[in-house]
Amino acid sequence: MSPLALPPGYARIKVVNSFDELVTTPFANGINALCWQRTLAGDFSEIVKLLAVSDGITTLDDSKLHDLPVSPAGKVAINILLEDQRLLRALELDPVLNCINGYPRDENSGPVPTDVFSFHTDSATAETDTYLCTYHGFASEGLRNDEAQRRVDVPATRAELLKLFGGEDDADFLEYLNENCYDLHYAPIPNTRPFSFGLGNLWRIAVDWPGSSVPPCIHRAPETRSGDPPRLLLIT
After folding, report:
1. Which residue of 123, 175, 221, 225 has the fewest C-beta atoms within 10 A of its own C-beta?
2. How many domains does the chain have?
3. Contact indicator for 27, 214 with CB cutoff of 8 Å
4. Is 159 part of any domain?
5. What's the predicted TM-score (pTM) here?
């Protein structure tokens, strides 16, 4: 498991010591991300090797995990995957476990990339949070809110979007930005470095929803190249 290296002096992330604390700690006083830091036992790489997934995203159900002919260390890893999902389902959430061997790229988004490799925030129409954990492969990455700028607020980018929209910078334009998710994507300011969510850590991050008292957490999927190990990711 990779160590957790939080950005120094950044007060929006709180490390917790249990699942119960992860679930019950409110997002308040500017905190918009909670991390249950864990060092997990088990052999997650064995699971990935046995799955032998093709390119793209493969969703894993409980029965597929149970059917894998794993060693005792692989069994320990499977039990962790199943238990994390059980805990989240007990909250009436719908966790999804994916083995990811490459994400589709957004080739037609214009001046604002909108795929998962772009720093972005999650959004919803009602109060909710995002839970996620990377067990294998490269972990998700975060960006400090004070080191990010919405891409639609960059003058040159906004001008390009206005040209594509073909209208004025008015309420209809704002609706256009929202409908295309352009307003959810961020650019790091110069000389900033993202931070890793680390392997094995279960995160709960704030979402952009009406009435939220904290800004949403900015994050992205890690850049991947041909030959990189598949990711084993739990998300809800």
Report:
1. 225
2. 1
3. yes
4. no
5. 0.93
